[in-house]
Amino acid sequence: MERASDRWISVTLSVLLHGGLVLGLVYGFWMYHASRPPRPTLAIEATVVDPRALPGVIPKPQPPTPAPTPPPAPAPEPIEATGPPEPTPEELAQREQAQKEQEQKEQAAEAEKQRKLEEQKQQEQAQAKRLEQQKREQEQKAQADAARKAAEKKHAEEQRLAEQKRQEAAQRAADEKARAEREDDLKRSLAAEEHTNAVSSGALASWEAQITARIQRAWLRPPSAKTGIECVLHVTQVPGGAVVAAVIGTCNGDQAVKESIEAAAYRASPLPPPPDPSLFERNLEITFKPD
User: Does residue 19 carry a pLDDT above 70?
Assistant: First the structure.
């Protein structure tokens, strides 16, 4: 690539070359005129006196003086060539070479200028493409962000609705459970009330008396049993009256008496049923007093 300094050097050399040629032509023209010999002239000294100016002289009338015949014009001298001398073939060749080099430099400079303009144009086009690409990417990113935010908002709304439905379902389940518990409580209250009514009516006491009498009839009194025995017997039964467990609690008898009472409970199985199924109790506490 040609630098600006190289171009100025070429222009300066060209100007100096042309200036030298002009100065050479001027100097040759001046030396040509300075070397020509001067034309020869005759040196005549004379004084012209008018006779009328002399004292005592009466001028005679003079005939009119005929007009002098002009001398013949001298032959024209040959015109000598003026101006700078004709350049030599070497000088012409140098001038032509310098002109070609100048034209080549000018063409190269013009081509470099066109190349730079084309390069600048390509850079501008590339910059415009990059800006357009960046703009498209920004628009696509904005659209993607908007779509993502819309999707997130939709998902959050769906989750909110799902959570709301879940809470509503949980609330309905809790309400249903509370209602069922209230109903169960009501049923238990009614059953307890019926049981209380049955107990207060003496039906439960009559049933427990029947069970006690049956166990006492099944008791085989051991030899060590004394008068005044009183023991608390815990009996566990299943529906139908079958005894599954019999354990003596507090008792004033010895070990043989305790074991005989527990054996009597198993022998009395099945126990008599209650007059009302609602009076059935799985665990019974019976006071055993055989005397």
Answer: yes
Q: What's the gap between Cα 137 and its chain centre?
A: 11
How far apart CA 17 and CA 22 sit, in angstroms, is 9
> Could you read off the pLDDT of 251-271 as tens digits, one per residue?
998 999 999 999 999 999 899
Taking every pair of Cα atoms in the chain, the longest distance, rounded to a whole number of angstroms, is: 234
Cβ-proximal residues to 14 (8 Å cutoff; 6+ apart), any chain: 98, 102
Token pair belonging to 35:
């070397």
Q: Which residue has the tokens 């600006």?
A: 4
Strands (E), the chain: 231-237, 243-251, 283-288
Assign domain 203-288 to its CATH architecture: 2-Layer Sandwich (3.30)
Identity of the amino acid at 203? A
For residue 64, the Cα-to-chain-centroid distance in whole angstroms is: 125
Q: What is the gyration radius of the CA atoms in the chain, in angstroms? A: 78
- Nearest 5°: phi and psi at 2? -75, 130
Where do the structural domains in the chain lie, given as residue ranges?
203-288
pLDDT band (50, 70, 90) for residue 17: confident
Q: What are the tens digits of pLDDT across the range 25-73?
A: 887 777 766 665 555 555 555 565 555 655 555 555 555 565 566 666 6
Cβ-in-10-Å burial (0-12, 13-18, 19+) of 32 comes to: middle
Whole-angstrom Cα distance, residue 240 to residue 273? 7
